[in-house]
Amino acid sequence: MDPALARLGEFGLIGLIRQRIQERTSGTIRGIGDDAAVLAADPGGDLLVTTDMLLEGIHFQRGWDCLRELGRKAMAVNVSDIAAMGGCPLYALLGLAMPAVGITLAEVEALLLGLEEEAATHGITLVGGDTCVSASGLVISVTLLGRSPRGGAVLRSGAKPGDWLWVTGGLGGAAAGLLALEQGFRPGQVWPATLSRPDWLGGEEEAAIQEALAAHLTPVPRLAAGRALQGIATAMIDVSDGVASDAGHLCTESRVAARIQASQIPIHRGAAVMARLLGREALDLALRGGEDYELLFAADSDPVPVLAEAAPTLPVTWVGEIIPGTPAPTLVHADGREEHLAGGFDHFRKAPPRSARTA
Amino acid sequence: MDPALARLGEFGLIGLIRQRIQERTSGTIRGIGDDAAVLAADPGGDLLVTTDMLLEGIHFQRGWDCLRELGRKAMAVNVSDIAAMGGCPLYALLGLAMPAVGITLAEVEALLLGLEEEAATHGITLVGGDTCVSASGLVISVTLLGRSPRGGAVLRSGAKPGDWLWVTGGLGGAAAGLLALEQGFRPGQVWPATLSRPDWLGGEEEAAIQEALAAHLTPVPRLAAGRALQGIATAMIDVSDGVASDAGHLCTESRVAARIQASQIPIHRGAAVMARLLGREALDLALRGGEDYELLFAADSDPVPVLAEAAPTLPVTWVGEIIPGTPAPTLVHADGREEHLAGGFDHFRKAPPRSARTA
After folding, report:
1. Taking a C-beta distance cutoff of 8 angstroms, is the pair A193, A154 a contact?
2. Are the Cβ atoms of B156 and A35 closer than 8 angstroms?
3. I need a labelling partner for B101 at 20 to 30 A (CA). Which of A141, A356, B224, B299 fits?
């Protein structure tokens, strides 16, 4: 263990975290420093709660990800879940298991800095957690509490036949970013020495690859869009496993089918470039790559005006429709051919998990 | 990966968890199956929230612990935190990272069974979580939400000079149980073949060792006692790192000192037996072993009558007093000698962490 971290000790680190964090919510009766956090109940709202773990060797490699970016992502993926409920995040808890060797106090500080940066962006207060040593890799487990107006949370289960299906942003960017990392690309760096550069690839394509890296390393949860969609979206989910899988979850919970138009899928420009570079199919990255943290939602009225107001720079694309039938999505190709849409990321079925994420 | 688990897939497992769990609270608007759980706010109470991780190779060895017992413990250690606030647990989230090789569906089912058993004991509903694959060992992260009457949570920070210091149950049992596991003892099994049995050790001592194993593997959170102490305890903490460390936390948060009488420390009879067997000091196991999950609390009135009513079979022992001074506990020996009481379990300072727990 890093001598600075060992000197600090477990309780010294908790003290350091307490110093670093800022209070951003009014309901904290007792934050870090007790057996449990004590929070004022919000009588006008419902409580939202979600948890997501990031594990070294599965969700990230320490060689790839700057710890500050990883801290941001660990918070952001949870914020994305609250966004997909149309809610507002309030309080976070951090579970942190650190490898006994190979992590430094400076890295832990960078991780905390990233967590706090993301928390600050969304007005979240860190109110508790758990720190321990890991016998293997770094484990970051964030639990996020939020609120929605009473009865106002947007569930996965409200889609009805006749609703349109929409998605925010571009898809496949995070998967392309992961492929780029595997090929040696790094944020802000020049072309990897080990990779030959094709003639067609210019400055614009390089910029697109950098955007894909950012999509993977520091996803931006669609919080403003999610909140604006409360009362408009009949069902909503964040795209964490890929539209193929996540549209399936929405269909299953709503007991409806869906037809998704392949030509309508908004492909992230970084996904298009990486697909061409590696001889992959861009549509496959967009449908099955996962980790885009965009919002996929059904609506029976036009969401465009409200999103143009709430999230003016965020594209929103019509991708299909909700129909009656066996709860599963169908992909409709431009030539009219239809296929059962399946095969988003499943942690148990693919090995090694990380590189399989885009397989 | 176990073929049965791979066949089930990540979402199949989530479906199985959904089937297995029971609804035990009235406020669940939406449990497992969405981006976040949706819970009715409790306008008459404050919200309590805590999280604790158990990691393979740190908190447990899969060879030692039956997965069912591990499931119970993962829930129980969080319940203990709610107990130490004088609160009532309500909702749990489960983060589960499973090794890609070496864990079977049957083991995962046993783990879930144990979690549900402990949840049933305390009226808790599992409302969400996260499942993924681990590149190394099993990781179990439980987050628990609970309630306390508004303004009624018992913090660590309320102890005042003149308060008495009390502890429930016996101490050192969990540490003794861990030593017993390391020596080859197993629940319900005969004497380990590799260990010679001394003459003084009879049936009563064997029973005490079995109790120590149970104290380590399936700790019993002191929920009824904790709730009864609301309004009586001025400050409370659960004994997870050992009284030496946890009394220090209570002193630090309350800005008081404490004098603890060594002769008053209630030593678990399994700790006494294992200490004699291994040439260790029983008092050291009781003060620094950790994981007993008893309640250490300060009070300015007599807690015995109320505890006799709420938890009639649970011993409660006066162990010392709160005094003004530098926020740290002092241990007073029978001969009047005093020593600074320090050295509970610190995850960062001792390696290897597990065997160091009782060092």
Report:
1. no
2. yes
3. A141
What is the number of CB-based contacts under 8 A between chain A and chain B? 270
- Write the pLDDT tens digit of every residue in A39-96: 998 888 999 999 999 999 999 988 776 899 999 999 999 999 999 999 999 999 999 9
Return d(Cα A317, Cα B241) in angstroms, integer. Answer: 53
User: Residue B92 is which amino acid?
Assistant: A
Locate CATH 3.90.650.10 in chain B. Answer: 164-356
| Chosen from B7, B25, B28, B35 to mutate, greatest number of chain A CBs within 10 A | B35
pLDDT in tens, B110-155: 999 999 999 999 999 999 999 999 988 999 999 999 999 999 999 9
A247, amino acid identity: A
Q: CA-CA distances (angstroms) from residue A258 to A160, B45, B201?
A: 10, 43, 70
What ipTM does this complex have? 0.92
Mean pLDDT of chain B: 92
The structure tokens listed for A15 are: 């003290």
* CATH homologous superfamily for the domain A164-356: PurM-like C-terminal domain (3.90.650.10)
User: pLDDT band for position B358 (50/70/90)?
Assistant: very low
Structure tokens at B301: 């009135």
| Interchain proximity A30–B130, CB inside 8 Å | no
- Chain B contact set for A41 (CB, 8 A): 41-47, 147, 150
Q: What's the CA gap between A143 and A162, in Å, rounded?
A: 35
Report the gap between the CA of B154 and the closest CA in chain A (Å): 9
Q: Where in chain A is the domain with CATH 3.30.1330.10?
A: 3-149
CATH number given to A3-149: 3.30.1330.10
Q: Tell me which residues of chain A have a pLDDT lower than 70.
A: 65, 343-345, 347-359
